[in-house]
Write a structure and sequence with these properties.
Aspartate Aminotransferase, domain 1, globular, 7-stranded mixed β-sheet, alpha/beta, Aspartate Aminotransferase, domain 2
Length: about 525
Protein backbone atom coordinates (compact mmCIF):
# COMPACT_ATOMS: atom_id res chain seq x y z
CA UNK A 1 0.00 0.00 0.00
CA UNK A 2 1.38 3.38 -0.95
CA UNK A 3 1.88 6.04 1.70
CA UNK A 4 -1.25 8.15 2.06
CA UNK A 5 -3.67 5.56 0.70
CA UNK A 6 -6.86 5.21 2.69
CA UNK A 7 -7.37 2.02 4.71
CA UNK A 8 -9.99 -0.36 3.44
CA UNK A 9 -13.08 -0.71 5.65
CA UNK A 10 -13.25 -3.05 8.64
CA UNK A 11 -15.74 -3.68 11.44
CA UNK A 12 -13.41 -2.24 14.10
CA UNK A 13 -14.20 1.17 15.61
CA UNK A 14 -12.99 4.28 13.83
CA UNK A 15 -12.27 5.92 17.19
CA UNK A 16 -10.68 3.58 19.73
CA UNK A 17 -10.80 6.20 22.50
CA UNK A 18 -14.57 6.48 22.10
CA UNK A 19 -14.79 2.68 22.13
CA UNK A 20 -12.75 2.55 25.35
CA UNK A 21 -15.02 5.13 26.99
CA UNK A 22 -18.14 3.18 26.06
CA UNK A 23 -16.56 -0.10 27.17
CA UNK A 24 -15.84 1.41 30.58
CA UNK A 25 -19.41 2.67 30.80
CA UNK A 26 -20.71 -0.82 29.97
CA UNK A 27 -18.43 -2.40 32.55
CA UNK A 28 -19.36 0.08 35.28
CA UNK A 29 -23.05 -0.56 34.62
CA UNK A 30 -22.50 -4.32 34.62
CA UNK A 31 -20.63 -4.26 37.94
CA UNK A 32 -23.39 -2.14 39.48
CA UNK A 33 -25.95 -4.63 38.19
CA UNK A 34 -24.07 -7.58 39.65
CA UNK A 35 -23.75 -5.81 42.98
CA UNK A 36 -27.49 -5.12 43.00
CA UNK A 37 -28.64 -8.66 42.17
CA UNK A 38 -29.79 -9.49 45.75
CA UNK A 39 -32.57 -6.89 45.47
CA UNK A 40 -33.40 -7.25 41.78
CA UNK A 41 -36.85 -8.38 40.67
CA UNK A 42 -36.64 -12.02 39.63
CA UNK A 43 -38.61 -11.80 36.37
CA UNK A 44 -41.14 -9.71 34.49
CA UNK A 45 -43.05 -10.73 31.36
CA UNK A 46 -42.98 -8.70 28.16
CA UNK A 47 -46.16 -6.90 27.13
CA UNK A 48 -47.14 -6.57 23.47
CA UNK A 49 -45.66 -3.08 23.53
CA UNK A 50 -42.41 -4.43 24.98
CA UNK A 51 -42.19 -6.92 22.12
CA UNK A 52 -42.75 -4.36 19.36
CA UNK A 53 -39.07 -3.32 18.97
CA UNK A 54 -38.31 -6.90 17.94
CA UNK A 55 -40.64 -6.67 14.93
CA UNK A 56 -38.70 -3.95 13.12
CA UNK A 57 -37.19 -4.69 9.67
CA UNK A 58 -33.56 -5.46 8.92
CA UNK A 59 -31.43 -2.36 9.54
CA UNK A 60 -29.85 -1.41 6.21
CA UNK A 61 -27.56 1.18 7.77
CA UNK A 62 -26.01 1.05 11.22
CA UNK A 63 -26.52 3.68 13.92
CA UNK A 64 -23.32 2.94 15.81
CA UNK A 65 -22.39 0.94 18.89
CA UNK A 66 -23.60 3.55 21.37
CA UNK A 67 -27.07 3.59 19.81
CA UNK A 68 -27.15 -0.22 19.78
CA UNK A 69 -26.16 -0.23 23.46
CA UNK A 70 -28.98 2.19 24.29
CA UNK A 71 -31.43 -0.15 22.54
CA UNK A 72 -30.09 -3.00 24.69
CA UNK A 73 -30.59 -0.96 27.87
CA UNK A 74 -34.13 0.00 26.85
CA UNK A 75 -35.51 -3.10 25.16
CA UNK A 76 -33.50 -6.11 26.40
CA UNK A 77 -31.96 -5.52 29.79
CA UNK A 78 -35.28 -4.97 31.66
CA UNK A 79 -36.51 -8.45 30.68
CA UNK A 80 -33.92 -11.09 31.61
CA UNK A 81 -34.55 -14.74 32.32
CA UNK A 82 -33.78 -13.97 35.95
CA UNK A 83 -31.37 -16.87 36.29
CA UNK A 84 -28.72 -14.69 37.88
CA UNK A 85 -30.92 -13.64 40.80
CA UNK A 86 -30.72 -15.21 44.28
CA UNK A 87 -34.26 -16.61 43.97
CA UNK A 88 -33.87 -18.53 40.74
CA UNK A 89 -34.78 -22.15 41.49
CA UNK A 90 -37.01 -22.99 38.54
CA UNK A 91 -34.78 -25.19 36.45
CA UNK A 92 -31.41 -26.87 36.89
CA UNK A 93 -29.32 -23.90 35.85
CA UNK A 94 -26.56 -22.02 37.58
CA UNK A 95 -26.60 -18.30 38.33
CA UNK A 96 -23.29 -17.45 36.72
CA UNK A 97 -20.52 -15.70 38.63
CA UNK A 98 -18.98 -12.25 38.52
CA UNK A 99 -15.65 -13.75 37.46
CA UNK A 100 -17.52 -15.60 34.73
CA UNK A 101 -18.69 -12.27 33.30
CA UNK A 102 -15.09 -11.12 32.96
CA UNK A 103 -13.95 -14.50 31.69
CA UNK A 104 -16.59 -14.36 28.96
CA UNK A 105 -15.27 -10.96 27.92
CA UNK A 106 -11.72 -12.30 27.83
CA UNK A 107 -12.87 -15.33 25.88
CA UNK A 108 -14.63 -13.19 23.27
CA UNK A 109 -11.55 -10.99 22.89
CA UNK A 110 -9.19 -14.02 22.74
CA UNK A 111 -11.44 -15.39 19.95
CA UNK A 112 -9.66 -18.71 19.56
CA UNK A 113 -12.11 -21.52 18.81
CA UNK A 114 -11.08 -25.06 19.65
CA UNK A 115 -11.41 -26.97 16.40
CA UNK A 116 -8.22 -28.55 15.03
CA UNK A 117 -5.70 -25.90 15.90
CA UNK A 118 -2.71 -25.61 18.20
CA UNK A 119 -3.01 -22.64 20.55
CA UNK A 120 -3.19 -22.02 24.30
CA UNK A 121 -6.97 -22.47 24.35
CA UNK A 122 -6.56 -26.11 23.34
CA UNK A 123 -4.39 -26.65 26.39
CA UNK A 124 -6.93 -24.82 28.58
CA UNK A 125 -9.73 -27.20 27.55
CA UNK A 126 -7.41 -30.16 27.90
CA UNK A 127 -6.50 -29.14 31.45
CA UNK A 128 -10.14 -28.59 32.38
CA UNK A 129 -10.95 -32.10 31.20
CA UNK A 130 -8.02 -33.47 33.21
CA UNK A 131 -9.22 -31.66 36.32
CA UNK A 132 -12.73 -33.05 35.93
CA UNK A 133 -11.45 -36.57 35.27
CA UNK A 134 -9.36 -36.34 38.45
CA UNK A 135 -12.25 -35.05 40.56
CA UNK A 136 -14.55 -37.81 39.32
CA UNK A 137 -11.90 -40.53 39.78
CA UNK A 138 -12.10 -41.68 36.17
CA UNK A 139 -9.17 -43.74 34.81
CA UNK A 140 -6.21 -42.16 33.03
CA UNK A 141 -7.38 -43.78 29.79
CA UNK A 142 -10.31 -41.34 29.82
CA UNK A 143 -10.86 -38.86 27.03
CA UNK A 144 -13.55 -36.24 26.89
CA UNK A 145 -14.96 -33.15 25.33
CA UNK A 146 -16.63 -29.93 26.42
CA UNK A 147 -20.04 -29.68 24.80
CA UNK A 148 -22.93 -27.24 24.55
CA UNK A 149 -24.59 -29.08 27.44
CA UNK A 150 -25.73 -32.36 28.90
CA UNK A 151 -28.02 -33.18 25.97
CA UNK A 152 -25.15 -33.20 23.47
CA UNK A 153 -22.96 -35.04 26.00
CA UNK A 154 -25.65 -37.74 26.30
CA UNK A 155 -25.82 -37.97 22.51
CA UNK A 156 -22.06 -38.48 22.26
CA UNK A 157 -22.13 -41.15 24.97
CA UNK A 158 -24.88 -43.13 23.26
CA UNK A 159 -23.14 -42.81 19.91
CA UNK A 160 -20.07 -44.43 21.47
CA UNK A 161 -22.26 -47.13 23.04
CA UNK A 162 -23.85 -47.83 19.65
CA UNK A 163 -20.38 -48.16 18.13
CA UNK A 164 -18.90 -50.37 20.87
CA UNK A 165 -21.84 -52.54 21.91
CA UNK A 166 -23.81 -52.41 18.67
CA UNK A 167 -21.58 -52.64 15.65
CA UNK A 168 -18.43 -50.85 14.52
CA UNK A 169 -19.77 -50.93 10.96
CA UNK A 170 -22.69 -48.72 11.92
CA UNK A 171 -20.76 -45.59 10.97
CA UNK A 172 -20.40 -46.67 7.34
CA UNK A 173 -23.39 -48.96 6.82
CA UNK A 174 -25.94 -47.38 9.14
CA UNK A 175 -28.35 -49.03 11.55
CA UNK A 176 -30.14 -51.08 8.85
CA UNK A 177 -32.99 -52.31 11.03
CA UNK A 178 -30.85 -53.27 14.01
CA UNK A 179 -33.01 -53.83 17.08
CA UNK A 180 -30.71 -52.27 19.67
CA UNK A 181 -32.25 -50.98 22.89
CA UNK A 182 -31.13 -48.89 25.86
CA UNK A 183 -32.62 -48.89 29.37
CA UNK A 184 -33.19 -46.25 32.02
CA UNK A 185 -35.79 -45.31 34.59
CA UNK A 186 -39.06 -43.54 33.84
CA UNK A 187 -37.44 -40.44 35.41
CA UNK A 188 -34.65 -40.34 32.81
CA UNK A 189 -34.23 -37.04 30.97
CA UNK A 190 -35.88 -36.84 27.56
CA UNK A 191 -32.53 -36.12 25.90
CA UNK A 192 -31.82 -39.86 26.10
CA UNK A 193 -34.70 -41.05 23.86
CA UNK A 194 -34.13 -37.96 21.71
CA UNK A 195 -30.50 -38.99 21.20
CA UNK A 196 -31.57 -42.52 20.24
CA UNK A 197 -33.98 -40.96 17.77
CA UNK A 198 -31.17 -38.91 16.18
CA UNK A 199 -28.86 -41.93 16.16
CA UNK A 200 -31.30 -43.80 13.95
CA UNK A 201 -32.44 -46.27 16.60
CA UNK A 202 -35.72 -44.49 17.22
CA UNK A 203 -37.06 -43.14 20.49
CA UNK A 204 -38.80 -46.48 21.10
CA UNK A 205 -35.32 -47.96 21.54
CA UNK A 206 -35.38 -46.38 24.99
CA UNK A 207 -36.97 -48.79 27.43
CA UNK A 208 -38.39 -46.92 30.42
CA UNK A 209 -38.11 -49.00 33.60
CA UNK A 210 -40.37 -48.37 36.64
CA UNK A 211 -38.95 -46.62 39.68
CA UNK A 212 -39.07 -47.41 43.37
CA UNK A 213 -40.80 -45.31 45.99
CA UNK A 214 -37.53 -43.31 46.14
CA UNK A 215 -37.81 -42.61 42.39
CA UNK A 216 -34.73 -44.75 41.70
CA UNK A 217 -34.63 -47.33 38.93
CA UNK A 218 -36.10 -50.65 40.01
CA UNK A 219 -33.32 -53.19 39.45
CA UNK A 220 -35.65 -56.20 39.51
CA UNK A 221 -37.83 -54.59 36.84
CA UNK A 222 -34.72 -53.76 34.81
CA UNK A 223 -33.59 -57.37 34.86
CA UNK A 224 -37.02 -58.59 33.79
CA UNK A 225 -37.26 -56.02 30.99
CA UNK A 226 -33.92 -57.07 29.53
CA UNK A 227 -34.78 -60.77 29.68
CA UNK A 228 -38.13 -60.09 28.04
CA UNK A 229 -36.59 -58.02 25.23
CA UNK A 230 -33.96 -60.62 24.48
CA UNK A 231 -36.70 -63.23 24.06
CA UNK A 232 -38.31 -60.88 21.55
CA UNK A 233 -35.16 -60.74 19.48
CA UNK A 234 -34.01 -57.30 20.64
CA UNK A 235 -30.39 -56.58 21.55
CA UNK A 236 -29.80 -54.59 24.76
CA UNK A 237 -26.66 -52.46 24.38
CA UNK A 238 -26.74 -50.04 27.30
CA UNK A 239 -28.22 -48.84 30.55
CA UNK A 240 -28.44 -45.25 31.79
CA UNK A 241 -28.05 -44.39 35.45
CA UNK A 242 -29.26 -41.06 36.78
CA UNK A 243 -27.07 -39.04 39.12
CA UNK A 244 -29.86 -36.64 39.96
CA UNK A 245 -33.19 -36.77 38.13
CA UNK A 246 -34.77 -33.54 36.97
CA UNK A 247 -37.98 -33.84 38.97
CA UNK A 248 -36.90 -35.08 42.38
CA UNK A 249 -33.10 -35.26 42.32
CA UNK A 250 -33.17 -39.03 42.74
CA UNK A 251 -29.88 -40.88 42.33
CA UNK A 252 -29.98 -44.40 40.93
CA UNK A 253 -27.93 -47.12 42.69
CA UNK A 254 -24.88 -46.50 40.51
CA UNK A 255 -22.65 -49.14 42.07
CA UNK A 256 -25.29 -51.83 41.60
CA UNK A 257 -25.96 -50.65 38.04
CA UNK A 258 -22.23 -50.88 37.28
CA UNK A 259 -22.22 -54.48 38.52
CA UNK A 260 -25.33 -55.28 36.52
CA UNK A 261 -24.03 -53.69 33.32
CA UNK A 262 -20.80 -55.66 33.63
CA UNK A 263 -22.64 -58.94 34.10
CA UNK A 264 -24.98 -58.24 31.17
CA UNK A 265 -22.18 -56.83 28.96
CA UNK A 266 -23.98 -53.50 28.59
CA UNK A 267 -22.56 -50.01 28.17
CA UNK A 268 -23.06 -48.15 31.45
CA UNK A 269 -23.73 -44.45 30.96
CA UNK A 270 -24.44 -41.99 33.77
CA UNK A 271 -26.40 -38.80 33.22
CA UNK A 272 -25.00 -36.59 35.95
CA UNK A 273 -26.15 -33.27 34.51
CA UNK A 274 -27.44 -32.12 37.89
CA UNK A 275 -25.70 -34.19 40.53
CA UNK A 276 -22.15 -34.95 39.34
CA UNK A 277 -20.86 -31.71 40.88
CA UNK A 278 -21.53 -33.19 44.34
CA UNK A 279 -18.22 -35.10 44.08
CA UNK A 280 -16.52 -31.80 44.99
CA UNK A 281 -18.13 -32.01 48.44
CA UNK A 282 -16.46 -34.22 50.99
CA UNK A 283 -19.76 -34.46 52.88
CA UNK A 284 -21.87 -35.51 49.90
CA UNK A 285 -19.50 -37.32 47.56
CA UNK A 286 -20.74 -40.66 48.91
CA UNK A 287 -24.14 -40.07 47.30
CA UNK A 288 -22.50 -40.79 43.95
CA UNK A 289 -20.69 -43.99 44.88
CA UNK A 290 -20.14 -45.96 41.67
CA UNK A 291 -20.13 -42.98 39.31
CA UNK A 292 -16.42 -43.55 38.70
CA UNK A 293 -17.24 -47.00 37.27
CA UNK A 294 -19.32 -45.63 34.39
CA UNK A 295 -18.23 -46.23 30.81
CA UNK A 296 -19.32 -42.67 30.09
CA UNK A 297 -20.53 -39.71 32.09
CA UNK A 298 -22.39 -36.58 30.97
CA UNK A 299 -22.77 -33.49 33.13
CA UNK A 300 -23.02 -29.71 32.95
CA UNK A 301 -20.72 -26.97 34.13
CA UNK A 302 -23.40 -24.31 33.63
CA UNK A 303 -25.53 -25.89 36.35
CA UNK A 304 -24.07 -26.38 39.84
CA UNK A 305 -20.69 -24.95 38.85
CA UNK A 306 -22.48 -21.68 37.94
CA UNK A 307 -20.52 -21.27 34.72
CA UNK A 308 -21.65 -19.02 31.84
CA UNK A 309 -23.74 -20.76 29.20
CA UNK A 310 -23.10 -22.96 27.44
CA UNK A 311 -20.75 -25.70 28.64
CA UNK A 312 -21.28 -29.38 29.37
CA UNK A 313 -18.88 -32.29 29.55
CA UNK A 314 -18.62 -35.85 28.32
CA UNK A 315 -16.06 -38.27 29.77
CA UNK A 316 -15.49 -41.71 28.22
CA UNK A 317 -13.40 -44.11 30.28
CA UNK A 318 -11.99 -45.87 27.21
CA UNK A 319 -10.77 -42.84 25.31
CA UNK A 320 -10.02 -44.86 22.18
CA UNK A 321 -13.70 -45.71 21.87
CA UNK A 322 -14.57 -42.00 21.79
CA UNK A 323 -12.06 -41.39 19.00
CA UNK A 324 -13.23 -44.45 17.05
CA UNK A 325 -16.86 -43.33 17.19
CA UNK A 326 -16.28 -39.84 15.78
CA UNK A 327 -12.90 -39.41 14.09
CA UNK A 328 -12.72 -38.37 10.44
CA UNK A 329 -9.63 -37.59 8.39
CA UNK A 330 -9.68 -34.98 5.65
CA UNK A 331 -6.98 -32.94 3.99
CA UNK A 332 -8.14 -29.74 5.66
CA UNK A 333 -8.46 -31.23 9.17
CA UNK A 334 -5.42 -33.51 9.27
CA UNK A 335 -2.57 -32.28 11.50
CA UNK A 336 0.60 -30.97 9.90
CA UNK A 337 3.71 -31.17 12.15
CA UNK A 338 5.09 -27.88 13.43
CA UNK A 339 2.12 -25.93 12.07
CA UNK A 340 -1.05 -24.34 13.40
CA UNK A 341 -2.89 -27.63 12.86
CA UNK A 342 -0.41 -29.63 14.94
CA UNK A 343 -2.89 -29.78 17.84
CA UNK A 344 -2.50 -32.12 20.84
CA UNK A 345 -6.26 -32.77 20.62
CA UNK A 346 -8.60 -32.63 17.66
CA UNK A 347 -11.90 -31.99 19.44
CA UNK A 348 -13.75 -32.40 16.14
CA UNK A 349 -12.88 -36.11 16.47
CA UNK A 350 -14.60 -36.34 19.85
CA UNK A 351 -18.11 -35.32 18.88
CA UNK A 352 -20.31 -34.08 16.03
CA UNK A 353 -19.17 -30.43 16.19
CA UNK A 354 -16.43 -29.05 13.97
CA UNK A 355 -17.00 -25.41 14.84
CA UNK A 356 -16.56 -25.28 18.59
CA UNK A 357 -15.90 -22.46 21.03
CA UNK A 358 -13.15 -22.38 23.62
CA UNK A 359 -15.64 -23.52 26.24
CA UNK A 360 -13.33 -24.22 29.15
CA UNK A 361 -11.78 -20.77 29.72
CA UNK A 362 -14.42 -19.38 32.13
CA UNK A 363 -14.25 -22.58 34.23
CA UNK A 364 -10.44 -22.52 34.09
CA UNK A 365 -10.45 -18.96 35.44
CA UNK A 366 -13.20 -19.72 37.95
CA UNK A 367 -11.38 -22.77 39.34
CA UNK A 368 -8.16 -20.76 39.70
CA UNK A 369 -10.14 -17.98 41.36
CA UNK A 370 -12.08 -20.03 43.91
CA UNK A 371 -10.49 -23.49 44.09
CA UNK A 372 -12.23 -26.87 44.15
CA UNK A 373 -12.98 -26.64 47.88
CA UNK A 374 -15.11 -23.51 47.37
CA UNK A 375 -17.31 -25.32 44.84
CA UNK A 376 -17.73 -28.12 47.37
CA UNK A 377 -18.76 -25.51 49.91
CA UNK A 378 -21.45 -24.26 47.51
CA UNK A 379 -22.77 -27.83 47.21
CA UNK A 380 -22.94 -28.13 51.00
CA UNK A 381 -24.64 -24.74 51.31
CA UNK A 382 -27.35 -25.56 48.78
CA UNK A 383 -27.96 -28.94 50.41
CA UNK A 384 -28.36 -27.34 53.84
CA UNK A 385 -30.63 -24.61 52.46
CA UNK A 386 -32.92 -27.18 50.86
CA UNK A 387 -33.28 -29.09 54.11
CA UNK A 388 -34.04 -25.70 55.73
CA UNK A 389 -36.78 -25.12 53.14
CA UNK A 390 -38.22 -28.56 53.85
CA UNK A 391 -38.42 -27.63 57.52
CA UNK A 392 -40.27 -24.41 56.72
CA UNK A 393 -42.76 -26.32 54.59
CA UNK A 394 -43.34 -28.92 57.29
CA UNK A 395 -43.92 -26.19 59.86
CA UNK A 396 -46.57 -24.49 57.71
CA UNK A 397 -50.18 -25.61 58.27
CA UNK A 398 -51.05 -24.67 54.68
CA UNK A 399 -48.18 -26.36 52.84
CA UNK A 400 -47.44 -30.02 52.18
CA UNK A 401 -44.04 -31.55 51.44
CA UNK A 402 -44.40 -34.14 48.66
CA UNK A 403 -40.86 -35.39 48.07
CA UNK A 404 -37.57 -35.08 49.91
CA UNK A 405 -34.70 -36.27 47.73
CA UNK A 406 -30.94 -36.61 48.22
CA UNK A 407 -30.09 -33.50 46.17
CA UNK A 408 -31.28 -29.88 46.71
CA UNK A 409 -34.61 -30.32 44.91
CA UNK A 410 -37.75 -29.81 46.97
CA UNK A 411 -41.33 -30.43 45.79
CA UNK A 412 -44.21 -29.09 47.87
CA UNK A 413 -47.69 -27.71 47.36
CA UNK A 414 -50.24 -25.43 48.90
CA UNK A 415 -52.86 -27.55 50.64
CA UNK A 416 -54.83 -24.90 52.50
CA UNK A 417 -58.21 -25.62 54.06
CA UNK A 418 -58.52 -28.97 52.24
CA UNK A 419 -61.96 -27.99 50.94
CA UNK A 420 -60.98 -28.03 47.26
CA UNK A 421 -61.05 -31.04 45.01
CA UNK A 422 -57.74 -32.49 43.86
CA UNK A 423 -58.35 -31.09 40.39
CA UNK A 424 -59.00 -27.60 41.70
CA UNK A 425 -56.03 -27.90 44.05
CA UNK A 426 -53.79 -28.82 41.12
CA UNK A 427 -54.91 -25.77 39.19
CA UNK A 428 -54.43 -23.61 42.26
CA UNK A 429 -50.82 -24.74 42.62
CA UNK A 430 -50.14 -24.14 38.93
CA UNK A 431 -51.53 -20.62 39.32
CA UNK A 432 -49.50 -20.20 42.50
CA UNK A 433 -46.24 -20.82 40.64
CA UNK A 434 -47.34 -18.51 37.84
CA UNK A 435 -48.24 -15.70 40.25
CA UNK A 436 -44.95 -15.99 42.14
CA UNK A 437 -43.11 -15.70 38.83
CA UNK A 438 -45.21 -12.86 37.39
CA UNK A 439 -44.99 -10.79 40.55
CA UNK A 440 -41.21 -11.07 40.46
CA UNK A 441 -41.04 -12.70 43.90
CA UNK A 442 -39.00 -15.75 42.86
CA UNK A 443 -38.65 -18.30 40.08
CA UNK A 444 -39.72 -21.79 41.08
CA UNK A 445 -41.20 -24.14 38.48
CA UNK A 446 -44.15 -26.48 38.04
CA UNK A 447 -43.96 -30.20 38.62
CA UNK A 448 -46.33 -33.05 39.45
CA UNK A 449 -45.79 -35.95 41.86
CA UNK A 450 -48.29 -38.78 41.68
CA UNK A 451 -50.79 -36.58 39.87
CA UNK A 452 -50.39 -33.75 42.38
CA UNK A 453 -49.28 -30.43 40.89
CA UNK A 454 -46.69 -28.74 43.03
CA UNK A 455 -44.07 -26.05 43.45
CA UNK A 456 -40.62 -27.33 42.51
CA UNK A 457 -37.49 -25.68 43.91
CA UNK A 458 -34.19 -26.77 42.37
CA UNK A 459 -31.58 -24.97 44.43
CA UNK A 460 -28.26 -24.85 42.55
CA UNK A 461 -28.01 -21.15 43.32
CA UNK A 462 -24.72 -19.87 44.71
CA UNK A 463 -26.34 -16.51 45.57
CA UNK A 464 -29.32 -17.78 47.62
CA UNK A 465 -29.63 -16.98 51.32
CA UNK A 466 -31.91 -18.59 53.88
CA UNK A 467 -33.98 -15.42 53.97
CA UNK A 468 -34.85 -16.03 50.29
CA UNK A 469 -36.50 -19.32 51.18
CA UNK A 470 -38.37 -17.71 54.04
CA UNK A 471 -39.71 -15.14 51.56
CA UNK A 472 -40.77 -17.92 49.18
CA UNK A 473 -42.70 -19.81 51.84
CA UNK A 474 -44.36 -16.61 53.04
CA UNK A 475 -45.42 -15.80 49.46
CA UNK A 476 -46.77 -19.32 48.93
CA UNK A 477 -48.86 -19.08 52.09
CA UNK A 478 -50.25 -15.61 51.34
CA UNK A 479 -50.93 -16.14 47.64
CA UNK A 480 -52.28 -19.61 48.33
CA UNK A 481 -54.90 -18.22 50.69
CA UNK A 482 -55.79 -15.56 48.12
CA UNK A 483 -56.15 -18.10 45.29
CA UNK A 484 -58.12 -20.50 47.46
CA UNK A 485 -60.58 -17.76 48.36
CA UNK A 486 -60.96 -16.94 44.70
CA UNK A 487 -61.56 -20.60 43.91
CA UNK A 488 -64.18 -20.82 46.65
CA UNK A 489 -66.01 -17.73 45.35
CA UNK A 490 -66.28 -19.22 41.88
CA UNK A 491 -67.51 -22.51 43.27
CA UNK A 492 -70.26 -20.61 45.08
CA UNK A 493 -71.18 -18.84 41.82
CA UNK A 494 -71.55 -22.22 40.15
CA UNK A 495 -73.86 -23.44 42.87
CA UNK A 496 -76.06 -20.31 42.62
CA UNK A 497 -76.40 -20.71 38.88
CA UNK A 498 -77.35 -24.36 39.22
CA UNK A 499 -79.89 -23.70 41.97
CA UNK A 500 -81.43 -20.89 39.95
CA UNK A 501 -83.08 -23.45 37.69
CA UNK A 502 -81.27 -22.48 34.50
CA UNK A 503 -79.58 -25.01 32.26
CA UNK A 504 -77.37 -22.38 30.62
CA UNK A 505 -73.68 -23.28 30.98
CA UNK A 506 -71.71 -20.83 33.05
CA UNK A 507 -68.58 -19.67 31.19
CA UNK A 508 -66.38 -20.97 34.02
CA UNK A 509 -68.21 -24.29 34.26
CA UNK A 510 -66.27 -26.27 31.64
CA UNK A 511 -66.81 -29.79 32.94
CA UNK A 512 -69.95 -30.83 34.80
CA UNK A 513 -71.64 -34.19 34.98
CA UNK A 514 -75.35 -35.03 35.27
CA UNK A 515 -76.75 -36.92 38.24
CA UNK A 516 -79.44 -39.53 37.60
CA UNK A 517 -82.13 -37.07 38.73
CA UNK A 518 -80.99 -34.44 36.24
CA UNK A 519 -79.21 -32.15 38.73
CA UNK A 520 -75.93 -30.56 37.60
CA UNK A 521 -72.85 -30.76 39.78
CA UNK A 522 -70.85 -27.51 39.80
CA UNK A 523 -67.28 -27.80 38.61
CA UNK A 524 -64.43 -27.24 41.06
CA UNK A 525 -61.71 -27.22 38.41
CA UNK A 526 -61.63 -23.43 37.97
CA UNK A 527 -61.19 -20.52 40.32
Amino acid sequence: MKHGDALEPTLDPADWDDFRELAREMMDTTVDDLKGLPTRRAWRPLSDEDKSPFATPLPREGRGLRAAYQDFLKFVKPFPFGQFTPRFWGWAGGTGTSDGVLASLLNAAFHSPNIIHHHAGTWVDRQVLDWLREALAFPKTTKGNLTSGGSLANFIALAVARHVKGSKSVRSRGVRGKKWVVYGSTATHYSIPKALDMLGLGSDAFRAVPVTERFEINLASLEKAIARDRKRGLKPIGVVGNAGTVGTGAIDPLDALADFAGEEKLWFHVDGAIGATAVFSGRHRGLLKGIERADSLAFDLHKWFSQPYDVGCILVADGRALDDAFSYQTAYTSPVPDSLTDSPIVFANRGPELSRALRGLPFWISMKTHGAAKFGQMVDKNMTQSRFLEGLVKDSPNLELLVSGPLPIVNFRYRGSRRLSEKALNQLNESLVSEIQKRGIAIPSFYAIGGKSCVRVCNLNQRSQRSDFEALVQACEQLGVELEARAGDKAVQHVKICRGGTTRRHPDDRKRRNHSDGRLTPSHDTY
